[in-house]
Design brief:
By secondary structure, the chain is α+β, with helices and mostly antiparallel strands. Strands 1, 2, 3, 4, 5, 6, 7 and 8 form an eight-stranded mixed β-sheet that branches.
Length: 657
């Protein structure tokens, strides 16, 4: 066992008795030090080893806690206490399970079963049923999980084991919530939690029970109920001198603070709490903390930092979704976002509320991707789930999601009908970011309904909130929308540009051959490379056109150099890695109408048609482009008649290899 170097005990003091006394006072560091001294002399019984393990946990010595628990198991066996040995084996199994080491956890569970058998009414059999229930739930066998959880509650009640009963009630309650019996589930969890904060349970069981209750409230976005239990748990911890669980409470409190818009304060508290929890080996709440940090950074537009935090959460067993998919959406990588969120939703086969937490993001991303039918199906599913427990936040979120779909379906009046109560609901929750997001959508709905003044007021109010919060991406989007509106209200501007269209050749066949996951990875690399090339070449991405891009350049030479750079980069990637999708590029210099960040007119049309004439790996440029660019190595000129243009178009292939 790894041990701290203890101080020299006071002369005449018995370390074992001193350690037991310190444990009773909840003086955890002293208990750990004194019991460790007694352990060095080989004086600890099996029960004393359990006490040392508890002291190690609360003294932030998780590095030795599990080892001591395993030794306690052996000691109980040696003392002939089979029931306690089995309990200890199951406790160790649960710890390994929480750490994601399912094979070792299974082995410890079987060890317990070998000692006490599979059937019985002892408290150890109750913990065996509890562990089996947790394993069944993890594998999606919900009926078995519920049956075993009920059995554990029955045994805990009959055996008058308060810790077992509370743990089993909490497990059963969470299962009922997940399967849609939300009010029944909360009632069971509240029964366990009131016993916890009232001091009726052991310190460890109290902390786990209260934290699971708070986590359930958070997952249901019932922030009012969560705040009540956070306050009750913190008071208990203060009374009992517990330092491990306040770290968990700080995670949950910071999550609530983040909803209120105090992002900087919440992030600082989350960073302190996640660092502290590392010393307690409290992996699940630490993972929640990293996820919350990632989500706050996403909202601020700090995507690199967000992804770092989300990777930390994922490494500790917490899914990075939906935050990571929303990062991809904000980066403009809609395909990757849609693939990620659809996969995450598909994985949630039985937990209704886990699915509900993903559906609003799936709806937003599906609308952005043009998958209106998919968005409609998702919002209908969300509505059926939320109807079981329409908390203010859940109902407001559902209304905003439905408004997005109605807007995409061409029903702004219906969207307005959903958004006004949603804004009121988010205000009652105290969630300014969600209020602003809903107002931004309302602005678009009002504008579509010809209420320009109302739309301007809503968008300007949303922008003011985004600025106050520091929501960079939302600020930029709102400012861009206001600029575009101003441009559209004026006469269209005429701009002379060189337009580029790119397209992956044979994309449908490639997608079918590679499969969805591999194809999405190819598209992500393709999109990232093209965006970087365009930005480095002085271009402006007007929009993404399926498997390609529409780009505008101020000068023809910049456009040609960028096109050559793209083809060469793809060639080099192909040579080093073995594959890169073949693309074709078309260029045309012309005057076009500009409204906001968009371009239209004959010149844009010709550029798109020139691109359509190109073969894989080819760069075609119109005669107008070459005339502006000057000397360029090209093929002989060719002409073609293209749809929508009366005169033939003259173009050349640019030599780039």
């Amino acid at each position: 066992m790894s041990e701290a170097t203890p101080p020299t005990p006071t002369a005449g003091a018995d370390p074992l008795e001193a350690g037991r006394a310190a444990l009773a006072r909840h003086s955890w560091p002293e208990a750990f030090e004194q019991l460790s001294l007694a352990d060095r002399d080989g004086r600890l019984s099996a029960t004393d080893l359990e006490s040392l393990a508890m002291a190690a946990f609360f003294a932030a010595r998780a590095d030795v806690e599990l080892d001591v628990k395993e030794r306690a198991f052996k000691a109980h066996e040696a003392e002939g206490n089979g029931l306690r040995a089995a309990y200890q084996a199951l406790d160790v199994a649960r710890r390994y399970g929480m750490a994601g080491k399912s094979s070792i956890a299974s082995a410890w569970t079987r060890r317990a079963e070998q000692i006490i058998g599979s059937d019985g009414d002892t408290y150890a059999h109750g913990y065996l049923a509890l562990v089996r229930s947790e394993v069944a739930a993890a594998t999606g066998d919900v009926d078995t999980a519920l049956s075993l959880a009920e059995r554990a509650v029955e045994i805990g009640t009959h055996a008058a084991d308060a810790d077992l009963k509370a743990s089993a009630l909490t497990n059963l309650g969470s299962l009922k919530i997940a399967t849609g019996l939300t009010f029944d589930g909360f009632a069971l969890m509240e029964e366990a939690s009131i016993a916890a904060v009232n001091g009726e349970l052991s310190p460890v069981t109290t902390g786990v029970t209260a934290c699971r209750m708070i986590g359930a409230c958070r997952d249901m976005t019932d922030y009012r109920r969560a705040s009540e239990w956070i306050e009750a748990t913190e008071k208990y911890c203060d009374r009992q001198s517990l330092s491990g669980f306040p770290g968990v409470c700080r995670i949950h409190r910071a999550e609530v603070v983040a909803v209120s818009g105090a992002w900087e304060q919440a992030e600082q508290e989350l960073e302190r709490a996640t660092a502290e929890l590392g010393a307690y080996n409290a992996t699940p709440p630490q993972a929640d903390g990293f996820y919350a940090i990632g989500d706050i950074r996403r909202l601020r537009g700090e995507f690199d930092g967000a992804q770092r935090a989300l990777r930390e959460a994922h490494a500790r067993g917490r899914s990075p979704q939906p935050a990571l998919a929303l990062v991809r959406l904000a980066e403009g990588n809609v395909k990757a976002a849609l693939s990620a969120i659809n996969a995450a939703v598909a994985e949630e086969t039985w937990d209704r509320w886990a699915r509900a937490r993903l559906l609003p993001a799936q709806i937003e991303i599906a609308v952005a991707a043009g998958d209106i039918a998919g968005a409609r199906a998702a919002v209908d599913t969300l509505g059926s789930i939320v109807s079981d427990y329409p908390s203010p936040a859940l109902e407001s979120g559902r209304q905003v999601a439905l408004a997005r779909v109605l807007m995409a379906e061409g029903d702004p009046t219906g969207a307005i009908r959903e958004l006004r109560p949603a804004i009121k609901g988010w205000r009652e929750v105290g969630a300014p970011y969600e209020v602003a997001r809903a107002r931004a959508i309302l602005a678009r709905a009002l504008r579509a309904g010809d209420d320009a003044d109302g739309a301007d007021l809503e968008l300007e109010a949303a922008l003011a909130t985004f600025v106050q919060l520091g929501a960079r991406v939302d600020v930029e989007a709102a400012e861009r929308e206001l600029r575009d509106l101003a441009d559209r209200r004026s006469w269209p501007l005429t701009a002379t540009k060189t337009f580029m269209f790119t397209d992956i050749v044979g994309s449908t066949s490639l997608a079918e051959a590679l499969g969805d996951q591999a194809w999405e990875a190819v598209l992500r690399r393709h999109d990232d490379m093209l965006r970087a090339s365009v930005a480095g070449g002085g271009g402006e991405v007007v929009n993404s056109t399926g498997d390609g891009f529409f780009v505008a350049f101020d000068g023809a030479r910049d456009a040609i150099d960028c096109a050559i750079g793209i083809q060469r980069a793809l060639r080099d990637h192909r040579a080093s890695v073995g594959f890169a999708p073949p693309i074709r590029i078309g260029l045309h210099s012309a005057d076009a109408n500009r409204r906001g960040s968009d371009y239209s007119g004959k010149g844009v049309h010709v550029a798109a048609r020139v691109a359509a004439l190109a073969e894989a790996g080819e760069i075609l440029a119109s005669a107008e482009t070459i005339a502006e660019a000057g000397a360029v190595a090209t093929s002989e000129p060719r002409t073609a008649t293209v749809k929508g243009v009366a005169a033939p178009v003259t173009f050349v292939a640019i030599t780039w290899s």
